[in-house]
Amino acid sequence: MEPYADVIIDLSVKNVDRIFQYRIPDHLKEFVKPGVQVNIPFGKGNTERKGIVVGLSKETDYDPEKMKELLDVETGAVPIRTQMICLAFWMKDRYSTTMNQALKTVLPVKAKVMPREERVIVSLKPKNEIETLLIEAEKKKYRARIRLYRALLENGELPLKLTSEKLGITAAMLKPLVEKEIVDLKTVKKEPGAGNRFPEAGPVALNQEQKNAAETVIRDYDSGQRNTYLLYGITGSGKTEVYMELIDYVLRKGRQAIVLIPEISLTYQTVMRFYRRFGNRVGIMNSRLSAGERYEQSERAANGEIDIMIGPRSALFTPFPDLGLVIIDEEHEGAYKSEAAPRYDAREVAKVRADMSRAAVVLGSATPSVESYYLAEQGEYKLLTLTKRAKENSRLAGVHIVDLREELAEGNRSIFSRRLKGLIEDRLANRQQVMLFMNRRGYAGFVSCRSCGKAMKCPHCDVSLTYHKNGRLKCHYCGFERPLPDRCPACGSPFIAPFGTGTQKLEEFTKREFPKARILRMDADTTAKKGAHEEILATFAEGGADILIGTQMIVKGHDFANVTLVGVMAADLSLYAPDYKSAERTFELLTQASGRAGRGELQGDVVIQTYAPDHYAVSSAAEQDYLQFYRQELLYRKMMGYPPLVRLLTIGLSSKREADVIRASEDMKRVILREYALDGLKVIGPVEDSPYKLNDNYRKILYMKHESYDILLKVRNCARKRENIPDLFRNVFVQYDLT
Ligand code: ADP
Ligand code: ZN
Ligand code: ZN
Fold it and tell me: How far is it, in rounded angstroms, from Cα 146 to Cα 116?
């Protein structure tokens, strides 16, 4: 018996942040369930209002006698807006945020919609003339022009925005071409993809493994089952083709699909692949859209003008009226977890959203997160596996591990092992390309005093400043900058110097070691300018450099056919991050980096330089053996009591006043232990977050572990209540993360 309906008032009334309870009259009982719209008497005058049922309760804090009764239930399909409001409500509870913040996340912010027009680049010359121009541009090494002509030959007409963003083509570069009447800029109606401006590409014939995967989902779907699937397939095994097959199927059922792809992997090639297959039914979201464009995309989805939305995390809230499928590519990516409130996990929210509209969810990865693979093993997810590369001529690269301790013992002081150096020389001689990967920018180039040993730190954050080539010191957390001092601020010694090897240093060393090589560097510094990221990748793709040096950015989802060597400079740096997921992250990065070598027809090599060759994250990555890694990692998590084997509640406290954060975190620990120690709750901390001081805030963390999610939920609610004590928490900001 659940006689009370928890109702939130529809948005037209301001105070939506609380629940109102109503009695359910007998004749409506079978119709009232979470998600339905109801009519309710509201306020003193009992005005009739629309509300949404978000839950049913057995108990109530009100006097049941005085409680009002629901008037009516709206039957029929639940409008999309109602669904999204329910989703916001779920998020508010799950991620302990305000309803307002949750609503802002799920509902498109109404913004001025620009006229439905766009600028396109059109070719004014026939194909053969463009081909001639391309050859000329290639001779003269006009990189941007080469890209433009190639794209024009492929597509004839190019949306200006997408092209300039993704191919790094600027207005200045187009101007002379317009003057010479080679191309023209036109304003046309509608979106990219409209009118089938992209040459269509039919589906490829799926191989047996791909077919099995797609058919499993389709068979379930046909029999009314909507599951969550984990598609585990090595890089290049054809996961994207499987996604497209499933989308095709769902579209034929008259339903819609959302495809989440981490922004960094949302490349021109990926986007075009979807356009070619689905033409003008595709919409794209990315963080660079203006509020108006975002709103317009939402409207188009709501109006049925498009059926597929591709984008990062936030594309999950596309208001499709009859969502049938959610795909989350690269599901292991950290970017699926929001850093800002509400700190939601897109994989979790996708599941809830899919349940509301009876949609299936497919998570795909070459290196599934330990959590997801565990859930697949537990039978929560259905596992689909692709074990082979889809293209017959593409082979996995050969992986070599180099122990840097041995190199040093044998007298090699260079940051290049002899193995790596030899292979680079070989590639340069054969005009093939090389990628050098340095997995952490933050470790780079900090400046320390050779006399007293003190490192130069940011005055606002507890982190070392990083030395940049222009002679300035920069904080990578808050942006603080200062010139390199002549003397040590602590002891006055003149012997202060940059230390360590970051991407900048690596670039210098590489230049010195291989003076003839053309080198490009890609990291947060070189890509700060809009479009710079694409520009670098495009230049490298067309052979404008021999060696690309970079951070994680270079290993995510980019295919370069001529790259036959990948060097990982120091594989273990990321192993020492203060985080239980550091081995997982290291394994992912190494596997992805290895996947970059030999994408074309040439055999590739990968050299992993490390001080920890025996660490399972390094050795499993070298053997390209996910399951071996997974088994080891699960053992470690079991032993140490980490998710997914226990649930974890992280409470982060921060304050501008150090004494306050210390007092508040100690207090919280004491109160929680008093209430929950008997339930077997484990509390760790308070420990200092890393960095401890950030933007002038001191930060402490408490970790709570328990097998039961529900207990941790209670602990969190208890902690939130404690926050109401002004003496202790007035100057302290508290955040919760429950996994
Ligand atoms: P993943 O998403 O798993 O990395 P993709 O779907 O991008 O893999 O496929 C890798 C490459 O193999 C692509 O160039 C794709 O066009 C090609 N490919 C995929 N499936 C097939 C197939 N069944 N037959 C031929 N080529 C395929
Ligand atoms: Zn000093
Ligand atoms: Zn700082």
Answer: 30
